[in-house]
Write a structure and sequence with these properties.
This protein is of the alpha/beta class and about 525 residues long. It has three domains: about 200 residues, ANL, N-terminal domain (Rossmann fold, 3-Layer(aba) Sandwich), CATH 3.40.50.12780; about 90 residues, Luciferase, Domain 3 (Luciferase, domain 3, Roll), CATH 2.30.38.10; about 110 residues, GMP Synthetase, Chain A, domain 3 (2-Layer Sandwich), CATH 3.30.300. The chain is built from 16 helices and 26 strands. The strands form seven sheets. It has a six-stranded antiparallel beta sheet with strand order 15-16-20-19-18-17. A hairpin with a 5-residue loop joins strand 19 and strand 20. Helix 1 packs parallel to helix 8, helix 2 crosses helix 3 and helix 2 crosses helix 6. The protein is globular. The termini are far apart. The mean pLDDT is about 90.
Length: about 525
């Protein structure tokens, strides 16, 4: 029976292979050692913390091996892991704890004060610290793990649909929703990704994106463990450290978000690091500017565009190196056994080349949203297809291209305008660091585009110059009429632009007279 204990399965097959290197402590763990930790963790969860099947517990921490313990401890014991975004405010964290009903909170030293504050609001909350015993903390994890090591524990037999995690969405457009991730979904992601991306036990992948995010857990951790490769675990992102690790650990496949790939390209080591072991890099979380694809190609590395959703997988598309270069801007073809549809507002299937909403069906789908049956029902149609909210088009060869979020689309003069199309063209400008486009109400045209621009350091840009740059690339009605220049764009921890914040920025710029305008008529 398929289940989410991918680590336990791999430990049976290649117990002495190196599974994980924790850079924080310089410790190296074999699959046997890592599985023994997860088994001791499961015993601790069940016997000492009295977490039964279906009970929830949370973790508030930077990346560390304990995160892996808890992920697979949950798979073995039947309790449910609720990772918390370390960038959230206390009130936001409290909301997730209340919604999930988590009764235990694991945390690291940097988040001690946040943990204590949450315990004040939730007196029943049990605190488990990773970095020593503190006042107000019930358990020291290292001591508890040692006490539970070597004790007999058999994995609880659970159906494939049993939840292993609740992964709360970033909440860029509203209250975060807890995506219910069953054991079947995690196991399937490992198998499908390993097959479609052609991973093997020789692959080595660093993880510097946060493990509280679906991409941190699912993009390479589970697939690499499925095939018996090696993970290099960073505590957090540091460009110099990443290049050093890629070289010294002979990393082969690497995931990042566009912001990270840009920071890595600007680091001095970009030109000098030994990348002879690298097979390819892949970007996710947000649209990938083509100039980054070209920059890495000049360095001899293929940078692929990926796509994933917390609700679907998390890896949804695949392409090879030749396709990544030939089809720049594409996210590839759908994963194995992942059905896709592109539909209009009436759920009619769109033809090749037409923009519509991307829908999914298959074993990669989540169970829906925790405590939100109406939202779960609304996300699926009568045939069981999950409606992503992402607008795409498909070319004649079956390659998909993102046009933007359905909620981001605006209608100008009766014509649909997709911001991602404009953003992709803007990011070709050599003097531009970052860009986003949103629609705003307009009495004449219904809505008009506003371009939010981050110039490269030392470069001076104007709205007129950018409009001229776009004039031979896009239809006139698509070119933003107003421009706002910023030092940086507001983004989530995984790289998505928070467009609700940009609308607030625009309103403030109007009050301060800081926007530029051009004639659209």
């Amino acid at each position: 029976m398929i289940h989410g204990d991918v680590l336990g399965e791999r430990a049976r097959i290649s117990p002495e292979a190196t599974a994980l290197v924790e850079l924080r402590t310089r410790r190296r763990f074999s699959y046997r050692e890592l599985d023994a930790r997860a088994t001791a963790c499961a015993h601790f969860l069940s016997e000492e913390l009295s977490l039964g099947v279906g009970d929830r517990f949370s973790i508030l921490s930077q990346n560390r091996v304990e995160f892996v313990d808890l992920l697979f401890g949950a798979a073995k014991s039947g309790s449910i892991l609720v990772p918390l975004n370390t960038r959230l405010a206390e009130r936001e964290l409290e909301g997730i704890l209340s919604d999930s009903g988590a009764g235990v909170l694991f945390f690291d030293a940097p988040h001690l004060q946040a943990a204590l504050a949450l315990a004040e609001k939730h007196p029943e909350l049990v605190l488990v610290g990773f970095d020593g015993q503190r006042p107000g903390v019930s358990f020291d994890y290292a001591e508890s793990l040692a006490l539970n090591s070597g004790l007999l524990f058999h994995r609880v037999q659970l159906p494939p649909e049993h939840p292993q995690c609740l992964l709360y969405t970033s909440g860029t457009t509203g209250k975060p929703k807890g995506v219910i991730v069953p054991q079947r979904m995690l196991a399937w992601n490992g198998f499908a990704t390993a097959a479609a991306w052609q991973l093997s036990e020789e692959d080595v992948s660093p993880i510097f994106t946060p493990l509280y995010h679906a991409g941190g857990l699912g993009a390479f951790l589970l697939p690499i463990f499925t095939v018996g490769g090696r993970i290099i675990l960073h505590e957090a992102f540091d460009a110099g450290e990443v290049w050093d690790v890629i070289e010294k650990e002979k990393c082969t496949v690497v995931l990042g978000v566009p912001t990270i790939w840009n920071m890595l390209a600007e680091h001095p080591s970009f030109e000098s690091a030994d990348l002879s072991a690298v097979r390819w890099f892949i970007s996710g979380g947000a649209p990938l500017p083509r100039h980054l694809i070209e920059s890495y190609h000049q360095r001899g590395i293929t940078l692929r565009q990926g796509y994933g959703m917390t609700e679907v997988g998390v890896n949804c598309f695949t392409m090879n190196d030749e396709e990544a270069l030939r089809k720049q801007g594409s996210i590839g073809r759908p994963m194995l056994y992942l059905e896709t549809r592109v539909v209009d507002e009436e759920n009619n299937i769109r033809c090749a080349g037409e923009v519509g909403e991307l829908c999914f069906r298959g074993p990669a789908l989540s169970l829906g949203y925790w405590n939100q049956p109406e939202a779960t029902a609304a996300s699926r149609d009568e045939e069981g297809f999950f409606h992503s909210g992402d607008m795409v088009r498909v070319d004649e060869e079956g390659f998909f291209y993102i046009a933007g979020r359905a909620k981001d689309m605006f209608i100008s003069g009766g014509v649909n305008v997709y911001p991602a199309e404009i953003e992709n063209e803007l990011l070709r400008h050599p003097d531009l660091e970052d860009a986003a486009v949103v629609g705003i109400p307009d009495p004449k045209w219904g809505e008009l585009g506003v371009g939010f621009i981050v110039p490269r350091q030392g470069y001076d840009l104007s709205g007129d110059a950018l409009s001229e740059f776009l004039s031979d690339r896009l239809a006139k009605f698509k070119i933003p009429r107003k421009w706002v220049f910023l030092k940086e764009l507001p983004r989530t921890s995984y790289g998505k632009v928070i467009k609700a914040e940009l609308r607030k920025v625009f309103e403030a710029s109007l009050a301060g007279g800081n926007s530029e305008e051009r004639d659209k008529s």
